[in-house]
Amino acid sequence: MADPKGFLNHDREVAKTRPVEERVKDWNEVYQPGSLLPIISKQASRCMDCGIPFCHNGCPLGNLIPEWNDYAYREDWSAASERLHATNNFPEFTGRLCPAPCESACVLGINQPAVTIKNVEVSIIDQAWDNGDVTPQPPERLSGKTVAVIGSGPAGLAAAQQLTRAGHTVAVYERADRIGGLLRYGIPEFKMEKRHINRRIEQMRAEGTKFRTEVEIGRDIDAAKLRKRYDAVVIAAGATTSRDLPVPGRDLKGIHFAMEYLPLANKVQEGDLTVAPITAEGKHVVVIGGGDTGADCVGTAHRQGAASVTQLEIMPKPGEERNPGQPWPTFPMLYKVTSAHEEGGERVYSVSTTHFEGDEDGNVKALHLIEVEFKDGKLEQKPGTERVIPAELVTLAMGFTGTDQENGLVSQFGLELDARGNVARDADFATNVPGVYVAGDAGRGQSLIVWAIAEGRSAARGVDRFLTGASALPAPIKPTDRALTV
């Protein structure tokens, strides 16, 4: 193990962020470069190497956290990287974007601040890249089998890399103009700079994975024809249908889904646009939805120079500590202050939008809301609490309801859906269509990046077994597995 007294000798210390007044003027990642390395050995030493490491259960990938904590403590970065990659294809993604259910399940977290697992993880992988420890791993021989992967988000990329390394010839189809899915266009640059995606793509190209951008299966290529062209297909198209808000005034100009707003800001950073067609500059911005996507909208609005930013959430404000109903090691609902919230704006809880108000030109100018409360398990409005707030740009960040069914992918394949509208699959992640598999949000529903990678790895095993009769690829989860929550 690491230092047997590490958790007694050292307090929890996390990565330092750049000053707010500095970082809102650019789109670089919010953390101070180089701030982790001087502290990470001590932080890794706080890992107790428990007899039963519950962090393994908190993480759907089954990351070998005590092992790479020990190597990080000893500053053996090569060994730490090997252990990290044993279970996770893209730790630089999860180390920056995952909400760390592993930390919620950390045994130390029972009565002390948990180990900074995310910070250790991202330190290991950044050192691995700097030291040249991340190299292409092409297969020793080819199987002669071909696989199409639809979607290049974390699930699709994980499945593609696993199957390529198993010797199959894999082509990834992406409807956008660049590879990465929501990692590319849904995650703002200040949360993860896209250079991290680019170098992984280059690694995968060197391993043999092929990429086809600006090709939408269902519209540009008939799904049934694609199935005939390849020996197997993995659908990793995500759950991209945004949840709408059907209230009066929804059709006013200036009201957009988060996934209409965020990609344009990213395209500016890619150099495709000089100015985003939808911008918060000088406007009163309202973000509806209190989750991570809403926070991304908040941070983006700050950088675009919004006059004000207000984030609305229909649920009550969570507490800052675990409540008895969410005991360790479950993933608790806690009040979270992201880097975007540190930068300003107002957060309003327990409110519901009743309608939007527009000006004479059809632009939204105000939002009418009312306070709500739970009574007997039902959400009820509180009379007399109505109020109006200015709103010249509104982003809807209320989650997603399922995979896209308008482009023809589902109907052309003839896929069956489950009760939630996700693509149905069996224990091997296989759909009702022979040779067609599904991974990620398209089959699970809206979830976390760490679950997407776990799904991609698990679906790859099912495909490999279908193609060859057996598989040595790991499958960290089953389709029915769910997060450790109450």
UniProtKB/TrEMBL annotation:
InterPro entries: 4Fe4S_Fe-S-bd, DPD_II, FAD/NAD-bd_sf, FAD/NAD-binding_dom, Glut_synth_ssu1, Glutamate_Synthase, Helical_ferredxn
UniProt keywords, alphabetically: 4Fe-4S, Amino-acid biosynthesis, Glutamate biosynthesis, Iron, Iron-sulfur, Metal-binding, NADP, Oxidoreductase
Family matches, as Gene3D superfamilies: Alpha-helical ferredoxin (1.10.1060.10), FAD/NAD(P)-binding domain (3.50.50.60)
One Gene Ontology term of the molecular function aspect: metal ion binding
EC number: 1.4.1.13
Pfam families: Fer4_20, Pyr_redox_2
Signal peptide (from-to): none
Cofactor dependency: [4Fe-4S] cluster
Catalysed reactions, semicolon-separated: 2 L-glutamate + NADP(+) = L-glutamine + 2-oxoglutarate + NADPH + H(+)
Pathway(s): Amino-acid biosynthesis; L-glutamate biosynthesis via GLT pathway; L-glutamate from 2-oxoglutarate and L-glutamine (NADP(+) route): step 1/1
4Fe-4S ferredoxin-type domain segment(s): 38-69
Protein name (record): Glutamate synthase [NADPH] small chain
Organism: Streptomyces piniterrae
